[in-house]
Amino acid sequence: MVTEIITLSLLLGKLTGGKIRNIGNLYINGWYLFVISFLTEIICLLIASKTNGRLSIIIEDNFFYIHIFVYLLLIIGLIMNFHEIGLRTTLVGAILNFLPLLLNNGRMPVSINALKFSKLYTQLSLLDEGRIMTHALVDKSTKLWVLGDIIPIPKPYFFPKIISIGDILIALGLFILILTNMKKRYST
Question: Which of 37, 46, 134, 147 has the least C-beta neighbours within 10 A?
Answer without folding.
Answer: 46
